[in-house]
Write a structure and sequence with these properties.
The chain is an alpha/beta fold. It has one domain: Response regulator (Rossmann fold, 3-Layer(aba) Sandwich), CATH 3.40.50. The protein has five helices and five strands; from the N terminus they run E-H-E-H-E-H-E-H-E-H. Strands 2-1-3-4-5 form a five-stranded parallel β-sheet, sandwiched between helices.
């Protein structure tokens, strides 16, 4: 019996959540969704996902225990404090300026970076590669960047072995 991998999708856009959920379920992944940072933190604790697909910028929400505003970067930082490292692979997605977000995302431990609109085929290939290479608690792994929809600086290599992530 094959164990299905669990993916946490975090995005404030419910249309994106629905579309990605459908695509991922069609590939036999279990999918958990969150529309804000507070839900994402709760889902990570409860569901223990094998991979997190995380929008970086979404409206601030009221976080658990005192109104902490959560964004994608804060979630990654929280995971680092929780585990001492980012043990769960994270694919960052954003509709914002990739030049502004990609370097910071990689610096804090993101496994891969995709700019919206997302090329679903490239994303699904990336997810499969990451999950085949790494068990849920593995160290960071190498990755490829987004498909042609992204600006040239985010298209470094389609070969995961040639990634610039350390």
């Amino acid at each position: 019996m094959m164990i299905r991998k669990k993916i946490l999708l975090v995005d404030d856009d419910r249309v994106i959540l629905k579309a990605l959920s459908i695509k991922l379920k069609a590939k036999n992944y279990d999918v958990v969704t969150a529309v804000d940072g507070s839900e994402a933190v709760k889902a990570v604790r409860k569901e223990k996902p094998d991979l997190i697909l995380l929008d970086i910028s979404f409206p601030p929400d009221v976080g658990a225990g005192g109104g902490v505003p959560w964004d994608g970067f804060r979630i990654v930082e929280w995971l680092m404090r929780l585990n001492g490292e980012v043990a769960t692979p994270i694919i960052v997605i954003t509709g914002g300026d990739p030049a502004k977000y990609e370097e910071r995302a990689r610096a804090i431990g993101a496994t891969a970076f995709f700019h919206k609109p997302i090329n679903h085929d490239s994303l699904l290939t990336m997810i499969k590669t990451i999950l085949e290479k790494a068990p849920a608690t593995s160290d960071q792994i190498e990755s490829q960047d987004d498909a042609p929809a992204a600006p040239p600086q985010t298209n470094k290599s389609a070969d995961p072995s040639k990634s610039s992530i350390s």
